Amino acid sequence: MSGATADPRLAAARAVPKKRMRLSWSDPALRGIVWQVVIVALVVLGIWWLVSNTRHNLEVRRIATGFGFLWREAGLPIGEHLIDYSPTDTYFRALLVGVLNTLRVAIVGIVLATILGTLIGVARLSKNWLLAKLSAVYVEVLRDLPLLLQLLFWYAMLQGLPGPRQALHPAEGVYLSNRGLKLPGLVWEPAHGWALAAFLIGLVATYFYRRSALAKQMADGRPRPVWPAALGFLVVLPVAVWAALGAPWTVDWPALRGFNIQGGLTLSPEYFALLLGLVLYTAAFIAEIVRSGIMAVQLGQWEAAQALGLRPGQVLRRIVLPQALRVIIPPMTSQYLNLTKNSSLAVAIGYQDIVSIANTTLNQTGQAIEGVAIIMGVYLTISLSISLFMNWYNKRIALVER
Amino acid sequence: MSDTIEAGHGVASAARKDAPPAIILDKVNKWYGTMHVLRDVSLEIAQGERVVVCGPSGSGKSTTIRCINRLETHQEGRIVVDGIELSDDLRSLDAIRREVGMVFQSFNLFPHLTILENCTLAPIWVRKMPKAEAEALAMDYLRRVKIPEQAGKYPGQLSGGQQQRVAIARALCMKPKIMLFDEPTSALDPEMIKEVLDTMVGLAETGMTMICVTHEMGFARQVADRVVFMDRGEVVEQGPPDSLFENPRTERLKTFLSQILRGH
Ligand SMILES: Nc1ncnc2c1ncn2[C@@H]1O[C@H](COP(=O)(O)OP(=O)(O)OP(=O)(O)O)[C@@H](O)[C@H]1O
Ligand SMILES: [Mg+2]
Predict the structure, then answer these.
(1) Is B58 in the pocket of ligand 1 (CB under 6 A)?
(2) Which residues of B touch A309 (CB under 8 A)?
(3) How much is the mean pLDDT over chain A?
């Protein structure tokens, strides 16, 4: 029986003996303190030397420091911008465009790489021999080749496509040429913004509805389906808002005019190649993470849960996923950070992300320190945000000691 | 074999031969690929009857009882549990899994849930029981297996014997009519075997229908109404424990018993 463990209250009856500090080099506590003081002193000295050295050099070369240059006109052409931009805008706005371009690759890339990686990881565990082998080959090939090489490869492939006049035209409104991918776009109107807002409110409402449905089930045992409410909040509500505002619906179809394809949404070859390369490369790593996460849950867990009468969906939701995610989340965080930082390879294929734009800024203004500081600040902010979110999520799902 | 249970004092039989049988296996056949692992297995188990299944390794004992709650599917023959014939129909599967509890050799507790949550999971999500009621029920069973004080801990913090008793309580929380045990003590250190066997004897005393795969002969003698000996996928011999162990009729059972006795 369990009587083996002694009662901790009895054990605590005698206080832990206090450690006395001795002034001797053989005392590990004292040695620890001395070392820490030495290390801090060295770090401070190093920083002081760097700062004074830099200031001296800047003075000698008559370079003004500070971020004042941010408000000067950039005169810097940027091909792709999510916000309005022209070369007469300031450096600040140019850098902002760069940050948004980086985020555009990183966020879309993380979402797509997660979906693709999960599919491939699951496929590799499939009983279908061909599917399993194909996924294994995918993982081995993609993760063994340098990312830079893959980016250059995809970019070269896209450059090798025919020009706009002979563009590949697989479906109505879709054109693939060496100028990039053209898709039909929706002409954005305020009603769409309101519908989107309604959708977001619907998300929050669904969350709270689900919580209260669960609490009620815990009280009386009767399960309450969440999907009717979710359907109402997430589909009916936004559609109703959109309809009430006149249901505007104008599609901007791309079409060949003159030498180029006009209108619609554009994915430039640079963005497309960068996204493709990052997603395919990172998905290979994510596939391995997902596979090992699922394999970490023993078959016996499935069997025990099924023997208790749980349906396969319930087993997945309540038994397998919580255990697999515990294994998956920490390495997944590293992959998200890798993808974000790897997006700086954009420079190699001419996509204007923050590194590319900050680099040009730095060359034009000579403000090297500020330029590098801005790049570091941006990546640190993005990376820390990802880490914080993932750590929060990890805590939420993995609050269990073994 | 560790005779941890005194063979002398037996548990009175609760088998009700008049009632419809709890489990019928009728000429069940199963293959893994081309390997024929169950050959015309026929068994009829009465309500309240306690059956011990023994036999050499690989003889199909686990496969047989795993077919009863359909963790494995048989390919030929008929299995009827509590009047419901096993088929691909999902509703019959649900119904059977509610009536049949199972305890595994390797415990298979859910490591991310507390002991209490392990026990309340199925009552809440399968039996649709209010949480408070499920918790009261779980505490009741944890008391019966003598570890209510561990309710808030996680499986990894318990000894093997304690974990297996939780596994028994977890299965009982579904109020099954039939309990299946697949070598519940073979993964345990000798000093923990007794506490698990005691729990199972206690369960036998409540009149539960039980099928136990085990080589604990003392347990078999004390609680079993019938011992079934399997070899190479067949039921070779069956009968009351005493007569089966004292007067084995087949060569195969004689060899098996002598190996078991020599091995311990
Ligand atoms: N999933 C499986 N795939 C292929 N063969 C299997 C599988 N499970 C069991 N077998 C085979 O089926 C036969 C019967 O196995 P089973 O587990 O029922 O034996 P057992 O009597 O329980 O043995 P043990 O005492 O070792 O547990 C064995 O030959 C085994 O190798
Ligand atoms: Mg077995």
Answers:
(1) yes
(2) 94, 97-98, 122, 126, 174
(3) 88
Say if residue A291 is in the same domain as residue A374. yes
Return the residue whose CA atom lies nearest to atom 4 of ligand 1. B32
d(CA B87, CA A299): 23
Nearest to B180 by CA among B88, B110, B79, B262: B79
Whether A367 maps to a domain, the answer reads yes
Residues of A in contact with B131 (CB under 8 A): 218-219, 221
Q: What is the ipTM of this complex?
A: 0.91
Task: Answer whether residue A128 is part of any domain.
Answer: yes
For ligand 1, atom 13, the nearest C-alpha belongs to B58
Query: Are both A310 and A230 inside the same structural domain?
Result: no
Residue type, B227: V
- The answer to whether residue A311 is domain-embedded is yes
pLDDT of residue A21: 66
Domain, as residue range, for A228: 191-242
Q: With 0-12 CB in 10 A as exposed, 13-18 as middle and 19+ as buried, what is A172?
A: exposed
CB contact under 8 A, B104 and A318: no
What digits encode the pLDDT tens for the residues A246-266?
888 888 888 888 778 888 888
Instruction: Give the integer Cα–Cα distance in Å for B42 and B53.
Output: 13
